[in-house]
Amino acid sequence: MLFQGRTWVATAGGAAVVALALAACSSSTSSAPAATSPAGAATGGTATGAATGAASGSGTLNGSGSTFQLTFQQAAIEAFKSVNSNMTVNYNGVGSGTGRSNLAAGTVAFAGSDSTIPSSETASFNGKTVLYFPVILGPITMAYNLSGVSNLKLTPTVIAEIFAGKITTWNNPAITGINPGVTLPSTPITVAVRSDSSGTTQNFTLFLQEAAGSAWTLGSSSTIKWPGTARAASGNGGVAQVIKSTPGAIGYVDFTDAKASGLTYASVKNKDGQYVAPSVAGASAAADGATVAPDLTFHAVWGTGADAYPITYQSWDLVFENQPNANDVAMLKSYLGYLLGPGQQLLPELNYAPLPSSIDTQAVAQLAKITS
Amino acid sequence: MERAANEGGRLMAVTTPAQQPEVHLREPNGWRRAKDRIVLFGMWLAFAVLLVPLVFVLITVIARGAHVITWQFLTTGPIPPNTLPASFGGMWPAILGTLEITAFAALLAIPLGVLGAIYVNEYGGKSLLAKLVSFMADVMTGVPSIVMGLFIFTIWVLHFGYSGLAGSLALACLMLPTVIRSSYEMLRLVPNQLREASYALGATKARVTLGVVLPAAIGGIVSGALLAVARAAGETAPLLFTIFAVQSANPNLFSGPNTALPSQIFANATQPFTGAQDRAWGSALTLIVLAFIVMLAARLVTARFTKYSQ
Amino acid sequence: MSVNAQAGPAAPAGPAARLSMRRPLGDRAFQVLALASGLLVLVILVLIAVTMTNQSASWFTTEGWSGVFSTDWDPANNKFGAMAFIYGTVITSVIAIIIAFPVSVSVALLLTEVVPRRWARPIVYVIDLLAVVPSVVWGLWGILVFAPWLESIYSKIASGVAGVPVLDDLFGQPTSGASFFTAGIVLAIMITPIVTSLSREVMATSPQSDKEGAYALGATRWEMIRGAVWPHSQTGVVGAVLLGLGRAMGETIAAALVIGSSPVITSHLFAPGYSMPSVIANQFGEAAGIQRAALIGLGVLLFVITIIVNLSSREVVEWNARRMKGAA
After folding, report:
1. Chains touching C, CB cut-off 8 Å, 3+ pairs
2. Is ipTM over 0.90?
3. How many whole angstroms separate alpha carbon A134 and alpha carbon A3?
4. How far apart, in whole angstroms, are the C-alpha atoms of residue B28 and residue B32?
5. CA torsion sign, A145 to A147 to A152 to A158?
6. Residue B14 burial by CB count (10 A; 0-12/13-18/19+): exposed, middle or buried?
7. Residues with Cβ < 8 Å from A277, sequence gap 6 or more?
8. What pTM was estimated for this model as a whole?
């Protein structure tokens, strides 16, 4: 009988296996090279700068934290294999807060963090000195979905009022006033925000706090209590997806992810009064104008400079100054040296901005402070 | 039984045929038969309601993930960076991780769970300890999976580092209460006559439990265990803090970080890059097929086993 | 699997083996092993409770009881009140159970009483397939496919009941598909396999004699189920439902993706909401200091709620079982 027990089981199981195998065989297996990054970082040209002390250090190096850094870390880890084949680097993008607590607990060697260690956390580090190594910069775009409108201009105050829920339609005079010659529809504005806590949120709201002043009352934190009408989504990719599928939506998305999703984004008025579109150059210009402390902490948001994109943020890799042994020191110097050296060349292709050379030089010099 | 006896006055209390009083056996009238039909229809409707999301989700997974499945995708690594398309590298590191971590978790949770249920049902009796264990197993089902991961992070990872084993521990903690509860329900339903007959033959308690009671309940126990394993194979949160993340396969379960399919699905699906999304849905399809094959195989083995024991 | 209590005519018995006063080592060892396993559950649970309470202590001490149960969760302003999440957890779990209970019991009854044996297998495989879909896939499908589809349905329902006294408070216009109700549905789908499977196994052991007796008295199938199967199975089925409820309350990733992530208390089921595991999943990655302690503290609260729910359900079930079986 067709439905005899064991025959059924065997048929169903066999069908599943056959289906999977057929799919595997019939899908075009393109001649896949070993998974080297096409960004060309594995070629000899960019590796020359890494010759200084890069080949030392062996073993596994674990880092965790900022998801902003994740795309960069993955590409760097891949390319780093050909620079130092004795090392395996793993990076877990779990969030800056968890990264820092992992570092404090000693389960990782370096932590990716989009912000400096907050005062509530300093106790967990037990007085040990933490070194900040800035590694990347990136713009946060104001991505939107308005058919026919491709060059929207926004000021910090207007952005603050949109995200606070005070401006609710696109043809509000506050927006039309700064966009002469652009026809804005009466579509209601749908605000897209992050459901998960994020360094992107933290730096975006920091920008609003500094730039919009009293117009922004929701504070600055990785978690914000958005107005009830906001639509929350998980990750930059989630927000991008909401914007893409909702006419009249606007949200804050990483430049990398906005470009990958094909979103349109607005030009934002910077401190110098210029409307600047998000770009790699704009981000680097923003960091140029920032005041860098001796421990290499700085804030790139709302920086000075005519070409600076005002919503630019940064991310550091945190390490303990004092390492358990010489191999740990070597591994950290090897990998971080790569990130600060040839690794920076990977950034523009990934739509991040490399560090301005002044900051980069200071960071490379700080590597010497790591001792065992 | 009182309710059944009063309803419409037509169905008397259910007793064994030997004690059956004099009754007129009547054909069920129109309303009773209609109720029966309505209920039957309702049951099939419930099943149809269940089918809808299943078909819906399978279509989504297949539509988004089937084109990614290639031999290379299934058997090679390392897992490429997010920005690269799915034709690069493969998900073998995650598949290996899932297989090893879930298998070890099952190895830990199933024997412990069944033994715990045996204790509560066979040895515990009415003791406070047995009641406490049973109650606590229920309470444990409500612990969020992310909290299990945090728990293992605190007591294991902080001392021994990230490893597949830590992930297995977290998954085992997740599975344990389900296995205990379902095994307990099955053991409870084994009729006492079986046990009494075995004792009468001079068997020891362990012999009775292992040789008579357990095989009698094995179908349900395996069922519950399988569902617990299937759930564990698909959990992300407990692995977040315990196995870390790697791009290349780590066959060593006991040392060094690892990766698994659910973690990859979650991490990649929220990325805007097409390559990452493709990998996410391809992994999802792979995981579903793998888990289903395991369930089928286990049901086949159980069916064989119960056939012989009857 | 009913037991035929009739034994054949007794064969002449040989001399009975002496009942040893000391039980064999293997027997005692097995008992100890079983006891140890049982205790392990307690140990693990106590450890979980202790470590969680320890890590969340600063939240309780800083906020105090009024703060902990306030409705305001605003990390930017250092406010960590849990009420909105407790509300969301309860609401979504209740919705999940209301949907899952009738569906699961119906399918279990189908499998045991209605469908002939060889046709039961496909249905079992459907349940298995439901079980093997990973929770993250339910969440992703939920937010990408299901929620947008539901949004239009919610809209129609909301327009339909606008003006009706109680209903329009429950079913207002949706913001997007992500809402309490969507999370409830997704949770229901996820807990159905275990509730169905366990219920089915329980129902399968209903005594054949009772069932045949009911039929012999002229019962329809439904009456037989109510009279013979249900009284026997109800405790087990409730146990299965409790298992499902526990899972619904603790489900993390799937709920986090479809619930809407809005910490507000509202009667509108189609509005976005939040639940305890969801907020932990969403916010733990970046949390530090008090926020981290608060998130872990939510886990502790969930623990306590689970205990209360389990206690009360057990009481209700035991009371009902005594009432039902008292007559027999």
Report:
1. A, B
2. no
3. 65
4. 6
5. negative
6. buried
7. A265, A266, A267, A309
8. 0.86
